[in-house]
Write a structure and sequence with these properties.
five-stranded antiparallel β-sheet, 106 residues, elongated, 5 strands, 1 helix, alpha+beta, 33% helix
Length: 106
């Protein structure tokens, strides 16, 4: 009985490590791709402001060719004055525009 519990514990531990490695390596690959293939675009802040655990986020959309893409970024309500319709600058991966992030608020 103890052998089965040990095997299940080892299997669970291995699965957790594989999952964490997948997240870490995936994030590194995504960041490297963005750094290697970056392009800039103007984006419009849309009416989707929300808060998760005391961190404030906003949403934006931009166009690459005829395709519309969306993204989100953090903002600080006490120091950032973002409103719906504001224009911001975003950087995106030209091979995958879904990989994007805000750079500058105008």
């Amino acid at each position: 009985m103890k052998n089965i519990k040990d095997n299940i514990l080892w299997l669970f531990t291995i699965i957790c490590w594989v999952f964490l490695a997948y997240l870490l390596i995936g994030g590194i690959i995504k960041k490297q791709s963005l750094d290697k293939n970056l392009e800039y675009s103007k984006a419009i802040v849309i009416d989707h402001f929300y808060t998760i655990r005391y961190t404030h986020f906003f949403s934006y959309e931009f166009f690459v060719g005829d395709n519309k893409y969306q993204g989100r970024g953090k903002y600080y309500p006490k120091s950032d004055a973002l409103s719906v319709g504001d224009t911001i600058i975003v950087v995106y991966d030209k091979t995958n525009p879904d990989n994007n992030k805000p750079v500058i608020y105008n």
